[in-house]
Amino acid sequence: MHTEKRMEVLLSMTPHLPWRSDGVRRFARESGWNLIDSSRLIGGISGLAGWRGDGAIVTLREDPATLAFVRRLRRAGIPVVDLSNQRPDIRIPRVCLDNVAIGRLAAEHFAASNHRRAVWFSTHWMNVHAQRFAGFSEGWAATPGAAGHPERWVLREAVPPGRWNNTRAVARWLAARLRAASKPVAVFCHCIEDAARILAECEACGIRVPEEAAILATGDDQKMCEMQSVPLSCIPQQGERHGYEAAALLQRLMGGEPPPRGPVLIPPGDIVVRASTDWTASSDPLVAKALALVAGNLARPWGVAQLSRELGVPPLRLGRHFAAELGRSPGAEILRQRLSKARALLRDTDLTLAGIAAQCGFCNASYLSNLFRRETGLSPRDWRRTHRG
Q1: How confident is the model at residue 258 (pLDDT cuts 50, 70, 90)?
Q2: Least confident span in 62-76, 91-105, 247-261
Q3: Which CATH fold topology does 8-97+240-266 show?
Q4: Residue 312 has pLDDT above 70, yes or no
Q5: Ramachandran region of residue 383, left (φ > 0), alpha (ψ -120 to 50) or beta?
Q6: What's the CA gap between 112 and 277, in Å, rounded?
Q7: Using an 8 Å Cβ cutoff, are 135 and 102 in contact?
């Protein structure tokens, strides 16, 4: 009996990202591929000199072995899909992240929190970093009242090569820039590891996060974001979708379809807001003090009248300051912070709705549920199911 030949496909990913790999593996199972993962081979891709399969999914960087391997496959007419856009000089079918869109989304997030000064931080600088920074700069330029262009801090451009692994030298360089930056400042980091480095240095310098420095990362590692002393907000990369779409493109190429004219771009997911950016920036001392009071007393059943008494100013005067600085009333800000905390507790804890209502200053679970549905279009239960990692 004739059986259809199973496609033999190679996966060579550097670095090996589990979410992206999961997407490739899911498509491979659905399509009956024989998938070979080079990360599990002794010698990696270098041990596949004589391999003649049906297609490959790779990450093109500067690695000479991978570049030589891909050239050999292409000369043999074997389809290859690149997962990255690190080497735009090499014309090859690609499925990659929409890095410009990621940067724009970061700028919009900070603008919505009233930030006026921004910084980019990354350890390295390659084409992917440049694309993400370009989107961030473009989005920032469209922000009303933004102070110039984002500063660009790149560790490996500023610290001599011999000191890249010198933790004291790196800490001194980063501390000097953080101390000199006008506060409050929004810091957009290329990845979660870079964001964790910024957070650690802020703590060492006594810079409060998010009040003085709001930190946003890009990445899919929920556990790493939540294990930090201040949980990190992040822009999900939709890694599993990225891997799945790359495998789907390779399937079409192996079937004889022509390659797309340009890279297939994977859009970012919705920002997961955690404590590192869950703050509205303000240069008005009265508004800044009010914001801190609200954040520290969300469980109290109070409103604008109580806030005004705590600050020692009439409600009308407080309202004028809020309108000039934030474009909304003190009451709207109290509600915004309460709902933001409710979303975080729904996503990150197993608390009942009654418990969440109590922690966020709502009179009961029913009131919170009705308000939540009005603001988000979803019930708290449905929102939790959709946003749990």
Answers
A1: very high
A2: 62-76
A3: Rossmann fold (3.40.50)
A4: yes
A5: alpha
A6: 11
A7: yes
Note whether 210 and 277 are within 8 A (CB). Answer: yes
Residue 44: predicted pLDDT: 64
Which tokens go with 326? 């934030």
What are the extents of the domains in the chain?
8-97+240-266, 99-237, 285-387
Coil, helix or strand for 218? strand
DSSP 273: -
Does the pLDDT value for residue 46 go beyond 80? Answer: no
Amino acid, res. 308 = S
Distance (Å, whole) CA 86 – CA 70:
15
Looking at 31-45, 172-186, 317-331, which range is the least confident one? 31-45
Distance CA 191, CA 215 (A): 11
Strands 118-122 and 151-154: parallel
Q: Could you tell me the two tokens for 25? A: 């593996």
CATH of domain 285-387: 1.10.10.60
pLDDT at 389 over 60: no
Exposed, middle or buried, 183 (CB in 10 Å: 0-12/13-18/19+)? middle
Q: What pTM did the predictor assign?
A: 0.81
Q: Which residue stretches of the chain are H helix?
A: 18-31, 64-75, 99-112, 127-141, 155-158, 167-180, 192-205, 222-226, 239-254, 285-296, 304-311, 315-326, 330-348, 353-359, 365-376, 380-387
Three-class secondary structure of residue 186 per DSSP: strand
Cβ neighbours for 73, distance < 8 A, ≥ 6 positions apart: 56, 80
Token match 């496959």: residue?
Answer: 73
CA distances, 309 to each of 297, 306, 366, 372 (Å): 14, 5, 29, 28
Shared fold status for 8-97+240-266 and 285-387? no
Q: How far apart are CA 115 and CA 214, in angstroms?
A: 9
Q: Which CATH class is domain 99-237?
A: alpha beta
pLDDT tens-digit map of 74-125: 988 999 999 998 898 899 999 999 999 999 999 999 988 888 899 999 999 9
